[in-house]
Design brief:
Elements (H helix, E strand, L loop, with lengths): L2 E7 L5 H17 L4 E6 L7 H9 L4 E6 L6 H17 L5 E3 L7 H15 L7 E7 L5 H18 L3 E6 L7 H9 L5 E6 L6 H16 L5 E3 L7 H16 L24 H13 L15 E6 L2 H5 L2 H14 L6 E6 L11 E4 L3 E3 L7 H10 L8 E4 L2
Parallel strand pairs: 1-2, 1-3, 3-4, 5-6, 5-7, 7-8, 9-10
Antiparallel strand pairs: 9-11, 11-12, 12-13
Helix pairs in contact: 2-3, 4-5, 4-8, 6-7, 11-12
Length: 391
Amino acid sequence: MKTGILIVGHGSRDAAANAELASIIATQRARHPDALVAHAFLELAEPTLAPALHELARRVDRVVVVPLLLFAAGHVKNDVPLALERARRAAPHVPFIAARALGVHAGLVELAAARARAALGDTDPAQAALVVVGRGASDPDANAELCRLARLVGEKLGTGWVLPAFCGITTPKVEDALELAARTRPARLVVLPYLLTAGRLVEKLRTQVDAARARAPWLRAELAAHLGDDALLHDAIDERIAGALAGVAPLPCDTCQYRVPIGKVAEVGGLRALLWSVRHGVTHSQAMPHVHAHKPIRKHVLVCGNADCATRGSVALLVALRRHVRDAALGDHVRVTRTSCLGRCGEGPTVAVYPDGVWYRGVGAGDAGELVREHVVGDRLVARLVDQIVQ
């Protein structure tokens, strides 16, 4: 049986970062000479995931998809499973197996500790502070995993202070973590980029560390190397591939009951998860009183924020919907939320209104007022924009 291994990277606008990823993939080809190793990017670079899956499926008997991502956030939980679901429909004779993201792996903890140890030099770790910097995500699980990783690295090194920080999206931000670490008066401050490749984020970190030194001239701050192409990284990748092939460690979202048919249920692409979200809103207030007890909202308006819809104007649409909801004094009864991909790429921006189960497509910012006035307030469909009605 000919096996294809598709290594899926995030992708970058920085050519050097993509080149470094290409080096990692080349090493994987050498490690798996009996398999056909290909690659794809989730965004910002070519080839993208869908065509890469299609091309590889034509040449092999089975495909293992390996997310070369440090943590499982939106890309791993949404984009990869949805692409796999389409690939399986297009090539039903080919088994598609999804490996887990790298996650908090013992080998990567060791690799990160080695990078930090090199930056520590001869400084006693107990007198040092360590700031571990991740990319940052809108997914709380992924952010929590970075915090866990930071603590494990700190425990391994025996550093006096360990602080997690994020390049963007969530907090604490890098500048705040550096200021807090500087106040501990460490003998040395090590900033560890927990990033696979170099690129713009690493360069920005370098600038931030330089700025921290300028603010506190007494501070001995060092920027450690990022993870990069290393044998420990490849050991972790190989373990994920082996686990997927053995069927012992698949990508959890790929077998989630909210994403694939279970029995007679065929709600794919996050729709069932959205319905459970609505159910939660109804039943949540029936629980025992707690610090955020609340009445269920009347309407939940979800706006696709994935790359394709964002390019077509979903961000402006989101802002406009929120403005019209606010102007209609509905802020306590209606929520307008940005979501990840709703599976209508090329037809968006997509809007779903629950608990009504009405999906709209091709919605622009200019339609926001009508959508709020007619549907949210008046419970009347905006027929020209309707995509489907979920019963």
